[in-house]
Specification:
alpha/beta; FAD/NAD(P)-binding domain
């Protein structure tokens, strides 16, 4: 007889493993199926964690080359890429093993293999050596996403790279061409530019980071250009062809100027698509939208009521923290509690140097809905901590309702922006006004004082600028 569960989660990424742990905490007999062989999904294995490791390591290498300017005398600074990659891999191993430990601690059954739906209550698990069938009252699909490529182009992860290949190169390419000016492309471009590659970014739009507040995006572009990353905006890729030496990419811009880019490697960073292969969704009649995402209601149920979906396979930003929130919410809903995700306050972070972070609405969002608003800004150039450690680039921008003063959006480009945004996420969750932030005592000297000053600036009463 097949083993029976209350909840079976297919996919052990941030959505899936968090959902499995919370389900078990709530007294539900829970299993999680993962085909990768390690838990943590794209995020821990080939995404968020290894990329942040390389971003940090490459920034340290870049800073070390300028130590003499700040009174630290060293010998020649040399790059040992192999050791850097080993350090990155060690971080991944520690964290994925950590999730396995959490499964044992919370009594989650971990099943390795590829899961597919036999019917609305039975799942087949294929681990290559044998197959087994299990049963569950509730099934949660959290199989994540995979890198999207351009039509007629395939990743070989040697010359034509997805983010996975860009995280595992064994030498620094002399020239690297990145197709797509979004988060992934710019983070990977920053890594390899610091390590010595000549990085070029081709973007179809007239600006980078689509969806980001335009003022922040423009400032970000200026800073990245100073870091010697070259940009080709308003440019469309026509053809990608591998050669003996590397890759040739044919492009043309809005003025129909044609350019042939010869590069050692090309990173295609044009987004991600939901991974729903071989789940038998069509056979069961699970509804998908026109982008291949699984359709769900406000309780994360598909059109088959005991089958749920969360994370990158459903609508919304493909972010690990959004997926985790959905994992907790669906577990609590199944257990009869009131799980909920506030999609208006999902923060976003780009982990370049400086970092970029935001939560809530952009100016462009507010203009679209004819919302009247006030703007408060404060530059890190006037922040004592930023000046003291020579990190003066960027600013904090707060958008508040013109009548009620409620904070509607916060956008930060500057040092530690990804950590600083949490303060405003909490504040906005509790409906804070800019006055509330302005009258909250912030420690001195800290980067977060820039938030207080930006809040003061909403009513034109900042002190230090």
């Amino acid at each position: 007889m097949s083993e029976k569960f209350d909840v079976v989660v297919i996919g052990g990424g941030p959505a899936g493993y968090v959902c499995a742990i919370r389900s078990s905490q709530l007294g539900l007999k829970t299993a999680c199926i993962e085909l990768r062989g390690t838990l943590g999904g794209t995020c821990l294995n080939i995404g968020c964690i290894p990329s942040k490791s390389l971003l940090n390591l490459s920034e340290s290498f870049h800073q070390a080359k300028d130590f003499s300017k700040i009174g630290i005398e060293t010998g020649d600074i040399k790059l040992n890429l192999s050791k850097m990659m080993q350090n990155k891999d060690k971080a991944v191993t520690v964290l994925t093993k950590g999730v396995e430990f959490l499964f044992k601690k919370n009594k989650v059954t971990y099943l390795k293999g590829k899961g597919s739906l036999l019917d609305k209550n039975r799942i087949v698990i294929d681990d290559k050596n044998n197959k087994q069938t299990i049963e569950s009252k509730n099934i949660i699909i959290s199989t994540g996403s995979e890198a999207a490529c351009l039509p007629g182009v395939d990743f070989d992860e040697v010359k034509i790279l997805s983010s996975t290949g860009a995280l595992n190169m064994n030498k620094v390419p002399q020239k690297m061409l990145i197709i797509g000016g979004g988060y992934i492309g710019l983070e990977m471009g920053s890594v390899w530019s610091r390590l010595g590659s000549d990085v070029h970014v081709v973007e179809y739009l007239d600006h980078i980071t689509p969806g980001l507040d335009k003022e922040i995006s423009n400032e970000f572009l200026k800073i990245l250009k100073k870091q010697n990353i070259k940009f080709h905006l308003n440019t469309k890729v026509e053809k990608i062809r591998k050669t003996d030496k590397g890759v040739n990419v044919e492009t043309h811009d809005t003025n129909n100027n044609k350019v042939l880019h010869e590069s050692d490697v090309v990173l295609v960073a044009v987004g991600r698509k939901p991974y729903t292969k071989n789940l038998n969704l069509e056979k069961l009649g699970v509804d998908l939208d026109d982008k291949g995402r699984i359709k769900v209601n406000k309780n994360f149920q598909t059109n088959i009521k005991n089958i749920y979906a969360i994370g990158d396979v459903i609508e919304g930003p493909m972010l690990a923290h959004k997926a985790e929130e959905e994992g907790i919410a669906v577990a609590e809903l199944i257990a009869g509690q009131a799980g909920h995700v506030n999609y208006n306050l999902i923060p976003g972070v780009i982990y370049t140097t400086p970092e970029v972070a935001y939560v809530g609405k952009s100016e462009e969002d507010l203009k679209k809905i004819n919302q009247s608003y006030k703007v408060g800004k404060f530059p890190f150039l006037a922040n004592s901590r930023a000046k003291a450690i020579n990190k003066p680039e960027g600013f904090v921008k707060i958008l508040a309702d013109d009548k009620t003063d409620k904070v509607l959006g916060v956008h930060i480009i500057g040092p530690h922006a990804g950590e600083m945004i949490a303060e405003m996420s909490v504040a906005m969750e509790f409906g804070a006004s800019s006055e509330d932030i302005a009258r909250t005592c912030h420690a001195h000297p800290t980067f977060s004082e820039a938030i207080k000053e930006a809040a003061l600036s909403v009513d034109k009463r900042q002190i230090h600028s």
